[in-house]
Each structure stands twice: as structure tokens, then as C-alpha cells.
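Sample pair:
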Amino acid sequence: MTYAVGIDLGGTKTDILVRRGTVTRALSTEGGNLRLDDAATTARRLASAIGEVTTQNAPVGLCMGAAGGDDATARNALRAELFNHLPGLEHATILSDQRIAWESAFGGAAGVLVIVGTGSGCFTVDASGCEHRTGGWGPRVGDPGSGRSLGAAALRLALAAAESGAYSALAEHVARHLAGRATLFGPDRMDPHDLLRFVYARDFDVSTLAPVVLSLADQDGSDALNLAMDEANALAAQCRRLVDAAPPSQERIALMGGLTRSAAYVGILEAALGRVLPGYDIVTPDTKPVMGALRMALEGC
């Protein structure tokens, strides 16, 4: 009996579902990006995780959604390495992470997906099966409304406040997040160079500042709320561009991604989307993108 494997290779972590018959096993491992990571290393990591719950050399059918999965060169490189490292692999389809999330949200029906996690983007599939997207530009460019973009905007605000000495609650919280009890204001304050030492540390992840922004936005902190609204408006504008280019047959928007765990941010996004796309039904599904990958694997992709 063939194992069906669905994979969501995200920027922060990788979710894996392995099904054989009626039994499904859920796994997770570290994340990655096809455009930035070595294909052989990624394939070995995935094969190791899958091998823990599959019989050696048993037939495997795999469907993966991946950050950077719309890059044909990177996609083909990883697919070749998966066949090298996963004995028994019979077929492997690698898609964008947006595609599997869309499948999970709509089950093949019409609608627009808005992803808000470490990265962000807007995505839909038309009646002929053609994919359409806006955003999803990746970490080197920046994705409006994403965890990385929220964090980077908060850093810029904190640095500007440190330079000017004008008090900002968000700037103070950013400094405390980076350096414990440190402060940007008053005696013994940090200066911009002190902040930048933490920012340019090897293990620094700017998206870890997103919860700092959203926690303050939830408390009506004006600078954090304004920052979150600016990011949400930019993402809503991307969604409007997508709808203008490829109108879905049903006026539905699904929000998915790690930042949807913030009720405050979901409310901000819904308001921003409602302004540019009035009449659209906006939902936050409780399904995970990896479930879309598994469904496609079971269908042979």
C-alpha cells in the first residue's frame, strides 16, 4: 500500500502528514525556502523525517507546498534530490505554499487566499486551473503585512525613536524584546548602535518582533496600531490587484497563516480588506495548508 505524504515547507517550520490506509501521522521539522536553501540538505531532512514513520522502500506519493516553490529551477532541483534520498518515491509534485493553502481553504472551490505568516501573499486559481497571485515576494524583498514586514517596520520605528528621543511605547517594547531590561529613553538609554548589535547578530529573526507589535496593537497602542494598519492596508491593496486581474466566481476571502492567531490583527485585516473589497465574505478557516497538500497527494496531484 502506497504512503501519501503531504508537506508544507514553511519559512519557520515544516509540517508533514503521512497517510497509509486510514492512519495519518503528523510530523514537523525545521523550515526553509527553496530559493535560499541547498536542495540536497532539504531533501535529506525531509527524507529523514518521513523515514521515521514509513516502512523502508515502501512506495510513496508526495505533494509538497514550499516557500519559493514557484521557482522552477529550485523546484526541479529539490524534486531530483528527493528521488535520490527517499527510496520508494514514485511521484513527487512540488507547488507553491500558496497553492496547498488555497486547496486547504477552499477544497478546489472558488475564492481568494490571503496568507499572513512569516511571509505573505494573495492567491487564487481560476476555473481553468490557472494560478494567479500578487505579493509573495520573499524575504529579500519583503512581503507587506507579514511577520517579517511587521518586525522590520517596528525596528525602523524603534531606531528613529532612538535617534530623535521622542517617546514611543512600541520602540520601548522592541528594545526590551531585544535586550531585556534596556530602555531607549531616560538615563543610561540605548542608542541606535546598541540596537543594531542585536539586529545583526547571526541568529536574529526579524519576524519575532511581530508579536510585540500585535500585542501592543491589541492594547490600542497608537504607534503599534498605526503600524499594523499600514501593513494591512498594503496587503489589502495587493488583494485588490489580484481580484482586478482574476475575479473569482465567488466573492470569498480566506485568511491563513500564523498571524491569524492574533484576533487583533485579523480584525485589522478584515477592516482593510472590507474597505477595498466590499461585499466579500472573509473567513479564517481552521484547516492547515498541509491538509491541502495531503489531499492533493491522495489525488495523485
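The CA atoms of residues 152 and 242 lie 25 Å apart.
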